[in-house]
Design a protein that fits this description.
By secondary structure, the chain is an alpha+beta fold. It folds into three domains: 348 residues, Rossmann fold (3-Layer(aba) Sandwich); 249 residues, Methylamine Dehydrogenase, Chain H; 83 residues. It is built from eleven helices and 39 strands. It has an eight-stranded mixed sheet, sandwiched between helices. Strands 3, 4, 5, 6 and 7 form a five-stranded antiparallel sheet that branches. Helix 3 packs across helix 11. The radius of gyration is 26 Å and the shape is globular.
Length: 710
């Protein structure tokens, strides 16, 4: 139950918030959270885990605790005087039409579209670029509250069918169904228990990946193992689907299928973690029984990240970091797939080759230079053709096929909403195809790429955005965002909910950190396992840079990040509680000793290592694990820990255990809130209403707790 101290004391204090600064001294109290006597032993070291009971799903005790925590959080947020004004501003900013780049299949163009505040974007198609828009699927009709999302849609090569994968309440589990496009009829095909899967069409069906059904009551926590690839033929029940690939001797390997555009080759990607893929391939030509495919090895182990871009002219074109940390494009003869036989098409350079697309008769290479995109066309012989000039400092996404003479691309930056362009591959001309009206003028804002230096002298970019006229006097509410892991790039992209924050004098910064992929595989590895502390040091150095340059002070600086970025925030606030005024870790990996025991957590070991690997690895993880480094009586930053009840990627126990530990130990004058979203998951597919509400809570909390002292 909620303690009497909370109801009598804190609620009374909250009544003063409308006329007081967040820095006024008051004490906070929280639910009486039960504990247990669980103690684990690692290499002779005993570690208490008093909130282990939170790892179970939907017990009455946990449901009660979640309700009490959410009540405290909402009471706190409701007393912030400008919260409703901020809600109005963010809703208005989000309410503009959004559209994706078209992609062509068969004779039709397909595209996503949202009128503004629709919870989920709709998918339309046209018979020609200037033809009539026809609705293919409206995911908003699949649930009353927008919590069923369309996570993937793949059109068959002949353009007859659309295979649609949906996610419910943000879970990683996928249901797949099929629409006959000409009639709009939903067929009887139904696929269950698909997860971490693509949909790859071949003939009159598609390949997909799934697990066996989890134990009842453990759907969101049970370990995911023994993934298999199946082929589903249109019209058949799922029980008749053909088992195409399984690796029974290695239950912790995931597997996915990809078919080339001509449907001649099937590629199977096996992974043991989030980095590195073993690749097999099979010839589909003339085959009808996919249960008897003969697989050959294209890449034998998990030491490199490799993917097939296109199969053309009897060769496979692979993007790989094998013997090339910044990646290269190679041509491979299927008859001689040994990596020693690979031939460079686009050799490795000193800039990361982040992606290659096969469009028309050429290849489009995207380079990531200092965390922003530069694009160049190449011939299949490796000859450099021409550059694709982007509108500014930002990132692009592409839609095209080898048999088309046009392509589409989107461009976005922190202050530039996603805009769609069409590129004519015959004339090499780029034209504006669709531009949003987001209701603000980007020229009123500044977004610049600066450089900070980490503790060991490493330099990295930091993107800083604010409204023109900002005074660098250290009095600005500033939010520093970071990730730093899993080879994932932090690049400048637009989110409309940030604009009201900038309008209120806020500064928004995104730091590039080691552990990401911005500078290739060596940069990634420099932030993994026994070097993970580099990531936290980079983040702290970026924070100190913002203070040194006058954007913020310790009283006005907030930190935010999600998933691995939630770990980053958790580590930063426990290691340097003096440096930040506020912290918002979202869906974070916060228990580094047990993360690998749930759902897909075992796959993250390539970045983290596990507490079972060795005494050295255990001690290193224990040394920074946010859950295990909370100290009694420390005045931590004002903290709002955010998670979701259907997060089966990073299970909510991470955030709940960390929140309970902080509440039990932190200086009572530091607010520690736990916000548990219902009917939501790790983030993908979240309906617009929840996105806006979440942003309102985050920026209300940050703005309120980053007011400079008077």
């Amino acid at each position: 139950m909620i303690s009497k101290l909370f109801t009598a004391g804190v609620c009374a204090a909250f009544a003063l918030l409308g006329q007081a600064n967040a820095q006024e001294t008051k004490e906070y109290a929280y639910p009486e959270t039960p504990t247990c006597d669980q103690v684990d032993e690692y290499f002779g070291v005993k570690v208490a885990d008093p909130y282990r009971w939170m790892e179970t799903e939907k017990t009455p005790e946990l449901i009660k605790w979640i309700g009490e925590e959410n009540a405290i959080t909402q009471d706190y947020l409701a007393q912030i005087p400008f919260r409703e004004d901020l809600r109005k501003e963010m809703t208005e900013r989000y309410d503009y039409a959004k559209q994706g780049a078209p992609w062509k299949r068969g004779d039709r163009y397909f595209f996503s579209k949202n009128s503004g505040l629709q919870n989920q974007s709709l998918v339309y198609y046209k018979d020609s670029l200037d033809g009539e828009e026809k609705l293919l699927i409206d995911p908003n009709t699949l649930s009353d509250d927008g919590t069923v999302a369309l996570s993937d849609i793949e059109i068959s090569g002949d353009g007859r069918y659309a295979a649609c994968a949906t996610s419910t309440s943000g879970s990683d589990w996928r249901d797949i169904f099929v629409i006959e496009i000409a009639t709009g009829k939903r067929l009887n095909d139904a696929i269950a228990w698909a997860k971490f899967t693509g949909i790859s069409w071949a003939g009159d069906g598609f390949f997909y990946s799934r697990y066996d059904a989890p134990p009842k009551g453990e759907e969101l926590t049970a370990k995911n193992e023994n993934q298999k690839i199946y082929y589903h033929k249109i019209g058949d029940p799922q029980e008749n689907d053909v088992l195409v690939f399984v690796d029974a001797d290695n239950p912790s390997r995931n597997c996915g299928a990809w078919v080339d555009d001509d449907e001649n080759w099937l590629f199977v990607y096996q992974t043991e973690s989030t980095y590195g893929s073993r690749i097999l391939f099979a010839d589909l030509r003339g085959k009808s029984d996919y249960a008897k495919l003969e697989f050959k090895t294209l890449f034998p182990d998990f030491s490199a990240e490799t993917s097939c871009v296109v199969a053309r002219g009897g060769k496979f074109y692979l993007l790989t970091d094998y013997q090339a940390p910044n990646r290269r494009l190679v041509a491979v003869d299927p008859a001689k797939p040994d990596p020693q036989e690979w031939q460079d098409v686009i050799p490795e350079s000193d800039v990361l080759l982040s992606g290659v697309a096969a469009v028309g008769d050429r290849l489009l290479a995207t380079f990531l230079k200092d965390a922003a995109h530069e694009c160049v066309f190449y011939g299949y012989d490796g000859a450099k053709l021409n550059e694709l000039k982007l509108p500014g400092l930002g990132v692009a996404g592409f839609s095209g096929k080898p048999d088309l003479d046009e392509m589409f691309y989107t461009f976005t930056s922190i202050i530039y909403p996603s805009t769609v362009y069409r590129y004519d591959l015959k004339t090499n001309e780029s034209t504006l195809y669709w531009k949003p009206d987001a209701g603000f003028d980007p020229n009123d804002y500044v977004s610049e790429r600066l450089w900070y230096e980490s503790t060991d002298g490493v330099r990295a970019p930091i993107f800083v955005s604010y409204k023109k006229g900002l005074k660098k006097d250290g009095k600005n509410s500033t939010t520093l965002y970071g990730y730093g892991g899993f080879n994932i790039n932090m690049t400048p992209g637009f989110k409309p909910v940030r604009i009201p924050y900038l309008d209120r004098g806020g500064v928004y910064a995104i730091a590039v950190l080691r552990g990401g992929g911005e500078y290739g595989e060596e940069w990634h590895k420099a932030g993994t396992k026994l070097q993970k502390q580099n990531v936290f040091d980079d983040f702290v150095s970026a924070a100190e840079f913002l203070i040194k340059e006058g954007y913020a002070s310790k009283e006005t600086l907030a930190i935010n990040g999600g998933s691995n970025g939630g770990l980053l925030v958790g580590a930063a606030l426990t290691q340097r509680p003096d440096l930040f005024a506020a912290a918002v870790p979202q869906v974070g990996v916060l228990d580094m000793l047990r993360y690998h025991k749930f759902t897909i957590g075992w796959a993250w070991a390539v970045d983290y290592g596990t507490s079972e690997d060795s005494k050295e690895m255990f001690e290193y993880l224990l040394g920074y694990s946010p859950l295990h480094n909370v100290k009694k009586g420390v005045k931590y930053p004002a903290t709002m820990i955010m998670t979701s009840d259907h997060d089966d990627r990073v299970v909510p126990a991470h955030s709940m255990k960390f929140g309970a530990t902080l509440q039990a130990n932190a200086d009572p004058t530091s607010p520690v809130l736990v916000r548990i979203e219902s009917k939501a998951g790790h983030g993908a597919g979240k309906p617009t209403a929840k996105i806006v509400e979440e942003a309102v809570d985050i920026y209300s909390f940050i703005l309120f707790n980053t007011q400079p002292k008077k």
